[in-house]
């Protein structure tokens, strides 16, 4: 009996009871009749979102912060609206990749963006108070063979500790001249 009970409790992580005889799938918002057992839910979930019924959710808990962050980065970089998490096609795509992943709400995304912004603002404020900084530039190449220039700033902070902040990551022109590096670093410092 143990595996059946386990499957049953897992299913309620993916469905909400919306009326006494109706449940809604949290992945695709489909509404199903509920007859007092989870068999139709298991059938729907297995057919539409892959067979992850008996899989524990430890993995999901570990990966969630990273996936949430990656989603917010995507929204910002690609100028997507926060409401992308409510788009049917996107939800189906994500559900196919990982049926156990619960997309963050619009509000959760907004809070994450605000947090990143506040951290960057704080770093900027500290750097405006310091007398001198030391800049280092590192070149690296992504898996797609695109070159990037990473500019890191080192300084002594208010509590006389050495602090390091990554100022930015710039796609790098093909000609790696000292003039280009200087121009890139200048544009980062002006931001
Ligand atoms: Zn569904």
TrEMBL record:
InterPro entries in alphabetical order: RNaseH-like_sf, Znf_BED, ZnF_BED_domain_contain, Znf_C2H2_sf
UniProt keyword Coiled coil present: no
Keywords assigned by UniProt, alphabetized: Metal-binding, Nucleus, Transcription, Transcription regulation, Zinc, Zinc-finger
Compartments it resides in: Nucleus
Keyword Transcription: yes
GO CC annotations, alphabetized: nucleus
Any Pfam family the entry gives: zf-BED
Entry-linked Gene3D superfamilies: Zinc finger, BED domain-containing
Gene Ontology BP annotations: post-embryonic development
Gene Ontology molecular functions: DNA binding; zinc ion binding
Domain BED-type: 6-56
Protein name: BED-type domain-containing protein
């Amino acid at each position: 009996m143990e595996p059946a009970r386990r499957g049953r409790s897992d299913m309620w992580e993916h469905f909400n009871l919306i009326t006494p005889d109706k449940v809604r799938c949290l992945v695709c918002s489909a509404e199903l009749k509920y007859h007092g057992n989870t068999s139709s839910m298991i059938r729907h979930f297995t057919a539409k979102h892959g067979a992850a019924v008996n899989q524990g959710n430890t993995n999901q808990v570990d990966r969630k912060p990273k996936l949430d962050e990656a989603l917010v980065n995507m929204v910002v970089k690609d100028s997507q609206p926060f409401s992308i998490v409510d788009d049917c096609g996107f939800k189906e795509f994500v559900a196919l990749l990982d049926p156990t992943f619960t997309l963050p709400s619009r509000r959760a995304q907004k809070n994450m963006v605000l947090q990143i912004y506040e951290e960057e603002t704080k770093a900027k404020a500290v750097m405006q108070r310091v007398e001198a900084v030391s800049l280092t530039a590192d070149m690296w190449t992504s898996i797609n063979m695109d070159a990037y220039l990473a500019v890191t700033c080192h300084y002594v902070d208010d509590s006389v500790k050495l602090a390091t902040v990554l100022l930015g990551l710039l796609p790098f022109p093909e000609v790696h001249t000292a003039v280009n590096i200087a121009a890139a670093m200048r544009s980062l410092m002006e931001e």
